[in-house]
């Protein structure tokens, strides 16, 4: 081996190739992590390793950017007369740097204020909606088979085979070349336009839905984008009658938009069969039906709601039964150390320490902004733990057990921290 460094062109080619592979795998892993239809399939033991792969590749993408920076000046000089290449380079650099910076905030979410994470998630999504279709288009239209020159026999509908043969002979022996009609579109243009149209049709509906929800809009009239609980679909009757403060929505209405994540099929509830239970290490195990549960004394609070994936909804008005009041009513034995929560889907569980469970702002909520909580967002009753990330705020809550041992919750088994405090 000569030990010589690879030439400038070879360095650029290597960086381009490695960046292409990394962006491809980042795209696949990122879409799988965000795709609701495969979310349940991944939630077993696949999601966290997939997330780690996505993070590692993101870091490697940053390394490639650092390796490219010393070559950038020479590269720009080389393509200064090629505006299309300069435009492509600029757009790709914006994509890569934007993905990298927003990804770092989402990766180290606990080191940044929730507002930063919310903004980073919007930026990351926005760049993905524009960047992935562009990269697909850019890659496909530069494949070798797309660059082959056109080889067509041009013939009008009025030409007969004999006439075409005569004209071809005349042209062959004439000093004046025959001017053939130029087609208004060639194969490469047709394929490029078709690909662009297909990508637009595929991406546009989801993009506009994302745009509406991420900017605070929704497909319902309720703040936070929650679906309206209607009498036609609500099987949890009667509806809870909101307290005066909750009716007036003392927080001014939720700001942001809830994203629906679920690891199991959405359960169905009816007031005739629904019940709420407290048992375990308590003096008086208790069970309430829906009407009895609604008769319990409730309170109203305004708090922010933060998901560990990066999004937040601010100034939610929650109304419900304080968890501490439920524990006091059941009577907690001295041997109890932790509070275990059960979801109505029969799968999801989580825990808080007894000290945490007695914090003033933890409640079992039945109303959000003065309205019943839709099933898709954890209703009819869900736990609210404002100072912790939302995986502690168990949806469809219908059971509490006091225990004297540690319990590893659903997400904690899959790599999430048991310490879920939000950094503010």
Automatic annotation (TrEMBL):
Where found?
Answer: Cell membrane
Task: Please report the stretch or stretches of sequence annotated as the Cytochrome b561 bacterial/Ni-hydrogenase domain.
Answer: 15-138
Provide the topology term for how it sits in the membrane.
Answer: Multi-pass membrane protein
Keyword annotations for this protein, in alphabetical order, are: Cell membrane, Membrane, Transmembrane, Transmembrane helix
Q: Which GO terms describe its cellular component?
A: membrane
**GO biological-process terms attached to the record:** respiratory electron transport chain
Which Pfam families does its entry note?
Ni_hydr_CYTB, Oxidored_molyb, TAT_signal
In terms of domain of life, where is this protein from?
A: Bacteria
Question: Where does the Oxidoreductase molybdopterin-binding domain lie?
Answer: 265-411
Check the record and name the InterPro entries matching this protein. Answer: Cyt_b561_bac/Ni-Hgenase (IPR011577), Di-haem_cyt_TM (IPR016174), OxRdtase_Mopterin-bd_dom (IPR000572), OxRdtase_Mopterin-bd_sf (IPR036374), TAT_signal_bac_arc (IPR019546)
Check the record and name the PANTHER family matching this protein: OXIDOREDUCTASE MOLYBDOPTERIN-BINDING DOMAIN-CONTAINING PROTEIN, PROTEIN-METHIONINE-SULFOXIDE REDUCTASE
- Under what name is this protein listed? TAT (Twin-arginine translocation) pathway-exported protein
Q: What organism does the record attribute this protein to?
A: Cohnella lupini
């Amino acid at each position: 081996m000569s030990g010589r460094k690879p030439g400038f062109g070879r360095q650029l080619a290597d960086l381009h190739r490695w960046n292409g592979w990394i962006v491809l795998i980042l795209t696949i892993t990122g879409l799988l992590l965000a795709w609701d239809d495969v979310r349940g399939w991944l939630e077993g033991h696949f999601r966290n390793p997939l997330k780690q792969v996505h993070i590692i590749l993101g870091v490697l993408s940053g390394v490639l950017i650092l390796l490219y920076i010393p070559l950038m000046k020479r590269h720009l000089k080389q393509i200064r007369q090629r505006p299309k290449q300069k435009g492509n380079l600029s757009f790709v650099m914006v994509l890569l740097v934007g993905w990298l910076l927003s990804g770092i905030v989402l990766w180290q979410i606990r080191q940044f204020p929730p507002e930063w994470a919310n903004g980073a998630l919007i930026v990351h999504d926005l760049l993905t909606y524009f960047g992935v279709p562009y990269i697909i288009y850019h890659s496909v239209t530069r494949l070798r088979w797309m660059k082959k020159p056109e080889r067509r026999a041009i013939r009008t509908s009025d030409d007969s085979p004999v006439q075409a043969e005569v004209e071809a002979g005349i042209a062959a022996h004439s000093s004046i070349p025959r001017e053939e009609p130029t087609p208004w579109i060639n194969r490469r243009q047709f394929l490029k336009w078709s690909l662009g149209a297909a990508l637009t049709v595929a991406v546009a509906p989801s993009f506009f839905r994302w745009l509406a929800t991420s900017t605070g809009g929704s497909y319902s009239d309720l703040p936070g984008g929650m679906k309206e609980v209607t009498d036609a679909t609500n099987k949890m009757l009667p509806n809870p009658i909101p307290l005066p403060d909750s009716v007036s929505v003392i927080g001014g209405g939720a700001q942001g938009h809830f994203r629906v994540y679920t690891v199991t099929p959405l359960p169905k509830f009816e007031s005739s069969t629904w019940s709420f239970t407290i048992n375990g290490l308590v003096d008086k195990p208790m069970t309430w039906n829906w009407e009895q549960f609604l008769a319990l004394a409730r309170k109203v609070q305004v708090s922010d709601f933060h998901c560990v994936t990066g999004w937040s909804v601010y100034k939610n008005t929650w109304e419900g039964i304080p968890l501490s009041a439920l524990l006091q009513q059941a009577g907690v034995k001295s041997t109890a150390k932790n509070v275990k929560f059960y979801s109505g889907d029969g799968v999801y569980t989580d825990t808080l320490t007894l000290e945490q469970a007695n914090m003033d702002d933890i409640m079992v909520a039945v109303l959000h902004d003065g309205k019943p909580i839709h099933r898709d967002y954890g209703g009819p009753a869900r736990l609210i733990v404002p100072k912790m990330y939302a995986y502690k705020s168990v949806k469809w809550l219908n059971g509490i057990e006091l225990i004297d041992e540690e319990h590893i919750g659903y997400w904690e088994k899959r790599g999430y921290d048991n310490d879920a405090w939000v950094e503010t």
